[in-house]
């Protein structure tokens, strides 16, 4: 991975972590606010932050699932009946090497 990609990935991780942390801190801090009623801007901000946390959670779940599938693609291929790359040998292709 090039240096620029690594820095971009690290920056993206820091942004995700800061968004999760600041959203959680805001929700915790404003949980007991003096609510003004239906159009309370703090309640709307709490709802938006909780939706952001749910979205980040779903994104992490999807990425973890994709990484798990990519990591175990040989196992998935074996269970689904696909040919494994390890089975692609000269013997399996019935290629005879004569000298
Ligand atoms: Zn409120």
Low-confidence stretches: none
Bound molecules: zinc ion
Number of folding domains?
1
Query: Could you state the oligomeric state of the chains shown?
Result: single chain
Distance between the termini: 43 Å
The count of helical stretches stands at: 3
Helix content: 55-70%
Number of strands: 0
The structure class reads: mainly alpha
Beta-strand share of residues: under 5%
What's the gyration radius in Å? 25 Å
The largest β sheet comes out as: none
Overall shape: elongated
Task: Estimate the mean pLDDT confidence.
Answer: 85
**Topology pattern, helix = H, strand = E:** HHH
Short structural description:
The protein has 99 residues and is mainly α.
Please outline the helices and strands.
Blueprint: H1 3-29, H2 41-71, H3 73-80
Helix pairs in contact: 1-2
Describe this structure as you would to a colleague.
With 99 residues, this protein is mainly alpha-helical. It has one domain (3-30, 40-81). Helix content is 67%, strand content 0%. The protein has helices at residues 3-29, 41-71, 73-80. Helix 1 (3-29) packs across helix 2. The longest helix is centred in the middle third of the chain and has 31 residues, at 41-71. The radius of gyration is 25 Å and the shape is elongated. The mean pLDDT is 85. Zinc ion (ZN) is lined by residues 33, 35, 40, 42-43.
Question: Tags for this entry?
Answer:
67% helix; mainly alpha; single chain; 99 residues; binds zinc ion
